[in-house]
Design brief:
231 residues; alpha+beta; Hypothetical protein yqbg; 2 domains; four-stranded mixed β-sheet; 5 helices; 28% helix
């Protein structure tokens, strides 16, 4: 657990604008809190800096596409990235090839083919993302997706937020580098090295195991799926 006030105070001490026992001013807290949350927002788009994945489930109704986000067809937090996906019917799982290339999806000549879903293409539009499914389900399938989580922002300087191991130190030192120009100073080499080293260790910890290799005949076999040929 950590709160933004402690991280901000430590970061300001790291760059020498506060002495031990001093507290930031209200304006300094406000300025640094904005930058702290921008730092978390930036880290949230880096797979090696997000320590968890979120599982999302949704019953497919035969549509070719679905919106996702607050108020969308799939009413949840809009994901920035879908890591993997599969569909389920009668307790059987069917892997989906997750395409991240719009041109690849556009090359599908008939997007209304009915059958066991094979491909998922995701466009992270704002405010609602859009998920495209091909084939259109021949029966009712449940879509299961593993999406990259989002690091929790700090609502204020006093609320405690759960942080994974080493994140408090990494936030402190990287925030110190970020706010140093605001206070017309610069971070020391020691602070910079700690900031880099903590991020490296977090990334190493979050690095996923090698991807599963599917057998021949299953979408994704030999590490690739031919979206036009269907194998």
């Amino acid at each position: 657990m950590a709160n933004a006030g402690d991280i901000i105070t430590d970061a300001m001490q790291d760059i020498g604008v506060l002495s031990a026992g001093q507290e930031p001013t209200t304006d300094d807290y406000s300025t640094c809190l904005r930058r702290l949350n921008k730092l978390l927002e930036l880290w949230s788009i880096d797979s090696l800096l997000v320590p968890f994945r979120t599982q999302i489930s949704h019953a497919l109704d035969g549509s070719e596409s679905y919106t996702i986000g607050s108020g969308g067809d799939i009413d949840t937090t809009r994901p920035t990235f879908i890591e993997s996906a599969y569909t389920v019917h009668n307790t059987r799982d069917y892997p989906l090839h997750v395409s991240r290339d719009r041109s690849e999806y556009d090359r599908i000549y008939d997007k209304s083919i009915i059958g066991v879903p094979r491909v998922l293409y995701y466009e992270p539009q704002i405010p609602l993302g859009r998920i495209f499914i091909w084939y259109v389900g021949d029966v009712t399938y449940t879509l299961k997706m593993s999406v990259r989580g989002t690091l929790t922002s700090f609502p204020d300087i006093t609320t405690d937020v759960d942080l994974a191991p080493a994140y408090s130190l990494a936030l402190e030192h990287n925030l110190a580098i970020l706010i140093a120009p605001v206070f017309e100073t610069s971070a020391s080499a020691e602070v910079v090295n700690t900031a880099k080293d903590s991020l490296f260790k977090i990334g190493r910890l979050n690095r996923q195991a090698p991807k599963m290799q599917f057998a021949r005949g299953i979408p994704g076999g030999r590490g690739r799926y031919n979206i036009e040929a269907g194998y």
